[in-house]
Structure formats: C-alpha cells, structure tokens
Write a structure and sequence with these properties.
immunoglobulin domain, mainly beta
Length: 133
C-alpha cells in the first residue's frame, strides 16, 4: 500500500511478518506524518505491562514502557519530534507521529510491541519516503 500527505497512512493490523515493509508512507520535508501500527484485536493493551519500541535498525525513535514515554535513549535526531496517540493506545492504536519531517527520516521503521506476561512479540515494518519540497 502507498499513502500520501498531517500525512496519515492507513492503520495496519500486525503480527510478525518477515521481509519487506507492510506499508510505504510518503511525506515532504517539514510536514507531519503518522506511521501506522495497531494491535489485533484492539483493547488488549495493558499499559502497566507493555513495551512499545519504534526503531530504525537498532536506533530508538520512540520508546513507551509501563504507561509512559521513556525517551532518554531516543536518537538525538528525533528529539522533540515524535509522539504517540496516548488517548487511542488502549484501543490498539500504536501509531507514531513525526513532526517537522527531515530528509534523514527517510528509512524503514519497525514498530515492536510486547506485553511482559506474553512471550509473543508483535512487529510491523513501515517505510517512510521523504522528498524535498
């Protein structure tokens, strides 16, 4: 799937799928983009026992643990530009909003969700394609 322009991409339900990105999103420098990620079925998220990582390879783009953002180890390039939809997370929306998109944001992102009492890790890959204006 390809999606354009906030730029919002369609929400994707996910389980671990090896290989290529599930979705490609497009944005121009300076825009705000939403990278989609949802749990299946919605309503399973238990804040006190969950971890959500948004990563590019091993670089931390955003980390949410036990009900709060933990951005101490966030890649400096993303500082102050990422956020989650906290009011929608309990319904399964784990999407990441990136504001003021930069050319260096062009990458394949991985959304990784894990509950402490569940040995299953759920992953989804989203490619962000950034263009200059």
């Amino acid at each position: 799937e390809t999606c354009f322009l906030c730029v919002c991409c369609p929400l994707m339900k996910f389980f671990f799928i090896p290989g290529q990105a599930d979705t490609t999103c497009h944005a121009f420098v300076g825009e705000t983009v939403v990278l989609p990620c949802t749990t299946t079925p919605p309503g399973e998220l238990i804040f006190s026992q969950s971890r959500l990582y948004w990563q590019i390879d091993k670089r931390i783009v955003h980390f949410f643990h036990k009900g709060q953002d933990l951005l101490k180890n966030q890649d400096k390039h993303f500082r102050g530009r990422t956020s989650l939809f906290l009011d929608q997370m309990k319904h399964g929306n784990l999407s990441l909003k990136i504001s003021n998109v930069q050319l260096l944001d062009n990458a394949e992102y991985t959304c990784i969700y894990k509950q402490d009492d569940d040995h299953q890790t759920k992953k989804s890959k989203i490619k962000l394609s950034v263009s200059g204006k």
